[in-house]
Amino acid sequence: MLFDSCAPMLVCHEGDAPIGDKTVRLPGDQKTVEGTPAEKTFTQEEVNKFLAADRRGHAEKYTKLEDSYKTVLQDKTLTGENRDRLESELESLRATFRTKEQQIEHDRSLSETKYQEQLKIASESANKYEMLYTDNVIEASLRDAADKNAAWDPGQISALLRPSTSLQPVLNEAGEATGTFAPMVKFQDTDAEGKPIETLRTPSDAVKRMKEMPKKHGNLFRANVVSGVGQGAATGGVTPGSGALVDIETLTTEQHMKLRKENPGSLGLRPRR
Hints:
The chain is of the alpha+beta class. Among the domains are: 93-200, no CATH class; 221-273, no CATH class. It is 47% helix and 16% strand. The protein has helices at residues 44-73, 80-96, 100-148, 154-161, 203-211, 214-217, 253-262; strands at residues 24-31, 37-42, 165-171, 177-190, 196-201, 225-226, 245-246. The strands form three sheets. Strands 3-4-5 form a three-stranded antiparallel sheet. A two-stranded antiparallel ribbon has the order 1-2. A two-stranded parallel ribbon has the order 6-7. Helix 3 (100-148) runs parallel beside helix 5. The longest helix has 49 residues, at 100-148. The N and C termini lie far apart (155 Å).
């Protein structure tokens, strides 16, 4: 028989896969004619299933091991050294099973947590020193005002006014903030008709106003207390001047009894009705 020498020819051996076959070949138990192992083929879908099953197996082992660490760490009798070691081992275990993306997110989270902790420490420190500065400025201004107005006890004036004193922004003539702060007192005062009002005063003005209210604060200032009977009193008697009180420490028993009967207001007492 004659063959056309120009016709294409395709030579195939037994067991060859067709051209373009995308299957995966793995060693199997099939035998060739010569007795050597033949290749067993698996589809990509089958390979994916193998890999997924392997990942699930590792994930289950990781979960069980992680749970074991968590259970041990719940033991409150652990020493600090053992607890630190177990927490370090648990973190290493978690790092082993993180993906690249998970590790990046984990590192970012740690950095954010560290930043927030440092920010909190810095803020608490700043607040602490701000409070100390504020207290020192206010205390000094109140005591200075008490001294200038001849208070008996500057500490007593400070104790009375400190709860209502705070640093307030200083304004210029246009009512704009100047960027500086000064102590100001929310002072409980009365208007011309005797009705209670609240005014905002400097410590100096607040203490001065207290001094001008002898019925309420008269015993706090030297100028409102007579050092003895007769001094600052009307016509040399036992009645002190207007708005003044008698210093009872300088009185004899007889003088004290006399004032208590005739002029109890000079002792800070209410008159009998």
